[in-house]
Amino acid sequence: MQALNLTAAEIAALARTRLRHEPPDYGDLISRPRGDHDLQPEPIAPPDEKAAIPAAVLIPIVLREEGPTVLLTQRAAALRSHSAQVAFPGGRVDAVDGSPAVTALRETEEEIGLSRENVRIVGFLDAYLTGTGYRVVPVVGLIEPPFELTINPHEVDEAFETPLAFLMDPANHHREGREWKGRYRTYYAMPFGDRYIWGATAGMIRNLYERFSG
User: Fold this and answer.
1) Which pLDDT score, from 0 to 100, does residue 32 have?
2) Domain 8-213 adopts which CATH fold?
3) What 3-state class would DSSP assign to 12?
4) Is 213 left (phi over 0), alpha (psi -120 to 50) or beta?
5) Which residues of the chain have pLDDT under 50?
6) Would you say the C-alpha torsion 62, 65, 68, 74 has a positive or negative sign?
7) Exposure check for the chain: N or C terminus, fewer CB within 10 A?
8) How many CA atoms lie less than 13 Å away from 191 in the CB half-sphere?
């Protein structure tokens, strides 16, 4: 597998041909949900998709002149779950949202103050089932600078950008593991400087790479 050093035009073209044009349906017979269960040394059954909590995240690709980046957040250290972890902006689907795209845009505005007017949605990845019981729909969006952020300190400690070329290089996709709930679990990790990108966030980045690389 080779690294992908993509321009803005190439990202837009790949989005049209490689990404889903609509959010994945429950029980999709063509493309099953991805997730933590894919990565384990011993095969395990995937979680019950319909029992999982619906959620959505935005994968914000910033079209910088010097090269595209991905906008990520460092979750607030005071949060009850997944505190201080690197994540995409996003959260649970509210009944009034109507679609994962609306959820992702709403949560992004709430967490980091990025206006939905700055986001051009270009597609969706397969749903991602997490070990903590969520069914996450990743929504891929392109961001044209300039834009302003307003960090919500109750949700996020910091927002930062990581070069897309780094994240789209499989040499940076490390497989690591740890003991969790009585069994050894493996996951992707993509350390970048002092940032430790891992778990579901890294898994979704890996899925984006696989889509773009064909």
Assistant:
1) 81
2) Nucleoside Triphosphate Pyrophosphohydrolase (3.90.79)
3) helix
4) alpha
5) none
6) negative
7) C
8) 5
